[in-house]
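queue> pop job 88
queue> type: inverse folding (structure -> sequence)
queue> payload:
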């Protein structure tokens, strides 16, 4: 007699566990994905700010873009798919950072190259300024001639004191 009750209870628990994902849940938390998508896109109103930063009230570009991102995230689309759809529609100028493909790699590399070249030039100039000037073997540098008026002033000063 105990077996049918245990079997019934186990089967009910199993069906409940299998049906749990189908149970309607509350609104999906999209805040992290929303922020990630908005940080990767630039507002197109001319302010050149990320969508998270554009502070223009009722912006003609940021407001519809944010609404579209929110709607698409609620439908279950990924952040990458949303960003790629904006790039396909608007162009690569909508991205907040250059890609790591093709010519865009130079935007990541050139600041470091310029910094290294600047350090080399500054080091070379510092070494050149710190080195004494080479003296020619056959020529002697003449001693500067003292002004006779200075000698006279010094003698007058010594006599007064």
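queue> result:
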């Amino acid at each position: 007699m105990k077996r049918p009750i245990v079997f019934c209870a186990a089967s009910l628990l199993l069906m409940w566990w299998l049906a749990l994902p189908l149970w309607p849940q509350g609104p999906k938390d999209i805040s992290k994905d929303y922020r990630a998508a908005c940080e990767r896109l630039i507002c197109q109103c001319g302010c050149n700010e990320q969508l998270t930063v554009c502070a223009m009230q009722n912006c003609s570009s940021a407001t519809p873009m944010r609404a579209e991102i929110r709607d698409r995230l609620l439908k279950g689309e990924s952040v990458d798919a949303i960003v790629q759809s904006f790039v396909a529609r608007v162009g690569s100028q909508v991205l907040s950072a250059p890609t790591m493909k093709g010519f865009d790699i130079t935007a990541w590399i050139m600041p470091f190259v310029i910094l290294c070249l600047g350090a080399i030039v500054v080091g070379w100039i510092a070494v050149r300024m710190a080195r004494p000037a080479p003296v020619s073997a056959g020529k002697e540098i003449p001693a500067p001639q003292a002004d006779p008026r200075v000698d006279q002033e010094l003698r007058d000063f010594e006599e007064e004191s």
